[in-house]
Design a protein that fits this description.
alpha/beta, globular
């Protein structure tokens, strides 16, 4: 199935890389609605555009990129940020930091164009592009975010969906897994975020993983997790 048309802003300091990637993205049916070569330029670009996805160079001049991602995650939680780095080994090393900052994925510029198109399709579906081990490591910090009572406010169905969010599934995959409609899955996810008082699905998934790691999941969630 062809991916839906995505509105993308590409922020990278390398002009030739930007030029090549823009061509591939447009050939893949997507709209590149803005380009920037610095964080200041990205600020100006975001004033005039409403991107679904921001592809962001790790070394974009103008400030701390991870702090910028955190700010974007707070102000525009509906926008997915895909961090771009030079090499594959660098991408592997920065996965955890990118996740904790609020990015939806971290990819190497060494990858072929089809890898970016596949990543965009997954981001459109609300998926995270991080390996499971990165999510497990992120679940181990000693401080727990939010009281366990917040999870207890969820229904059994919402807890089931929250576990799937924590596993990195997007809304369409959740709908298929549970044999519900896509709109129903989206409504459940929206209710979960509101009840947990978190701004996005990454924070919700991390909260579930931390409670699972700590052994403080509500009883119904433990039964679902280990059945």
């Amino acid at each position: 199935m062809a991916s839906r048309r995505a509105r993308i802003v590409l922020a990278d300091q390398q002009h030739l890389f930007r030029q090549s990637l823009v061509q591939h993205l447009r050939s893949g049916g997507h709209a590149v609605v803005g380009e920037a070569d610095s964080l200041d330029g990205l600020d100006r670009c975001l004033i005039d555009t409403e991107p679904e996805i921001i592809m962001l160079d790790r070394y974009l001049p103008g400030g701390d990129v991870f702090e910028y991602i955190h700010m974007l995650n707070t102000l525009q939680p509906q926008t997915a940020v895909l961090l771009l780095v030079a090499y594959e080994h660098e991408a592997s090393g920065l996965q955890g930091q990118a996740f904790l900052a609020g990015a939806s994925g971290c990819m190497s510029k060494e990858l072929p164009a089809i890898a970016y198109l596949n990543a965009i399709r997954r981001l459109q579906d609300g998926q995270l592009l991080f390996p499971a081990e990165v999510l497990r490591r992120a679940a181990r910090p000693p401080s727990i975010s939010g009281p366990v009572a917040s999870l207890s406010e969820l229904t059994s169905r919402e807890l089931e969906i929250l576990q799937l969010i924590a596993e990195g599934l997007g809304n369409r995959e959740i709908a298929a897994r549970l044999d519900i409609t896509y709109n129903t899955a989206m409504k459940h996810v929206s209710n979960i975020l509101a009840k947990l008082k978190v701004s996005n699905r990454m924070e919700a998934g991390l909260l579930f993983l931390r409670h699972a790691s700590d052994g403080t999941l509500p009883d119904v969630a433990r039964q679902q997790r280990f059945r």
